[in-house]
Amino acid sequence: MRVLVVDDQYINRYLLEKILEGHGLEVVSAIDGIDAFEKVQAGGIDLIISDVLYPRMDGFQFCREIKSNPAYKHIPFVFYTAAYTEEKDQEFAFRLGADRYILKPTDPSEFINIIKGLIAEYPELSGFSTDPALMKEEQYLSEHNKRLFHQLEKKLIELEELNQALRRSEERYRNLFENVNDAIILHEILPSGEPGRILEVNTVACKRLGYSREEMLEKKISDIETPESAARYREIQPDAETARVTSFEGEQVAKDGTVIPVEINAHLYHENGMGFCLSVCRDITVRKKAMNELSRALSQINRNIYQMATIGDKIRNPLAIIVSTCEECRGERTEVVHSVVQNIDEFISELDQGWVESEKVRAFLQKQYGIGNQEMNHTKAI
Question: Is the peptide bond before 318 cis (omega within 30 degrees of 0)?
């Protein structure tokens, strides 16, 4: 049994070929109605399985050509389609002479059972009346056009729904893009790995740097960053290429020359052989000021600790001399002197405890914020 499979999609033809060949049927394939009709004319076709929607001569036209030709009208004709699924489509196909109308997707075992059932009827099909003369030419054209226009209408509705979904998706993206608090900059990555032209920016980026969107899109990344920031990017660029996502601190230069410290989260990706980088840039001016203030406060704590560490010895040493002198003199005021010295020593002990607590504060700040070691070393050297 030699079967002709007609479908313009390679994957559909391939799947049908494998299913049919797996059940001992010989398969010949065609990509449209004209190609299929030429293969029928070449002879040896016992069964036709065809899609409806393909270029040049479509499935309905091909079926009519087969069933209106006395030499081929005995060949069983099966439609297998996912596009024309309505009852009127099936009715039209049967009126053209089709023997079966199967909708995609159909389970392979069920599909084979339908084909086997049709093959079992094959000896009787030569006398089976499928004469398309029952459908007059004008009626055929009218019905055929109705089916085509109806299918086109469905496709247009589906396309409009897809366009609406795309517009909604674009609107959500634009709202997200524009309403975040950080500057977002999309720029190209040159083959050398260097950042290139700016391709897209959000409103935050424009306002922060003082440029219009049109002005920003005329610039390169190098136009809005400091040389130090560019050098820092070159240092991390090899790792960024590997990881595709990286974070680093840099500086951006506004239109008025203001240098703005930023934390940059860069996402690198490739599209159509070109490199791109989507950078989310957070203004860390306030954070930098706070860290500077914290650093200064920690420097002061270091100086205080040093002073408290030395002041006890500077006071206790003279007190020891005073006490020793009083004991040698055995004067009437010795007990008074001893009492005053004890009070001073207790006060110095309180200072020592404050020194211990300050040490704890300094250790916490150094561990939490990673600052202070330089200030501490500097203080010890004073």
Answer: no
Which of 217, 210, 214, 282 has the alpha carbon at shortest distance from 253? 210
Measured between alpha carbons, how far is 270 from 241 in angstroms, rounded to an integer?
A: 11
Encoded tokens for 109: 């075992």
The span from the CA of 267 to the CA of 277, in Å, is 5
Query: How many residues in the chain?
Result: 382
Do 229 and 279 touch, CB atoms closer than 8 A? no
Contact 348, 315 (CB under 8 A): yes
Strands (E), 149-194: 183-189
Local structure of 370: helix, strand or coil: coil
Q: Are 188 and 199 in contact (CB under 8 A)?
A: yes
Contact present, 214 and 200 (Cβ < 8 Å) = no
Residue 103: which H helix or E strand, with range? strand 100-103
Q: Residue 44 corresponds to which tokens in the numbers above?
A: 């040896």
CA angle 335, 337, 341 (to 5 degrees): 115
pLDDT tens-digit series, residues 116-135: 888 888 764 433 333 444 45
The token pair at 81 is 């389609």
Binning the chain into helix, strand and coil, the percentages to the nearest 5 are: 60, 20, 25
What is the rounded distance in angstroms from the CA atom of residue 236 to the CA atom of residue 47? 65
Contact assessment for residue 369 and residue 309, using Cβ atoms and an 8 Å cutoff: no
Rounded CA gap, 183 and 205, in Å? Answer: 4
Q: Are 248 and 264 in contact (CB under 8 A)?
A: yes
Q: How far is CA 114 from the centre of its chain?
A: 45
User: How many whole angstroms separate alpha carbon 209 and alpha carbon 211?
Assistant: 6
Sheet holding 183-189, edge to edge: 195-201, 183-189, 274-283, 259-271, 245-253
Predicted TM-score (pTM) of this structure: 0.45
For residue range 16-31, list pLDDT tens digits in order: 888 888 888 899 999 9
Q: How far apart are CA 78 and CA 90, in angstroms?
A: 11
**What does the pLDDT look like over 308-339, one tens digit per residue?**
767 766 777 777 777 777 766 666 667 777 77
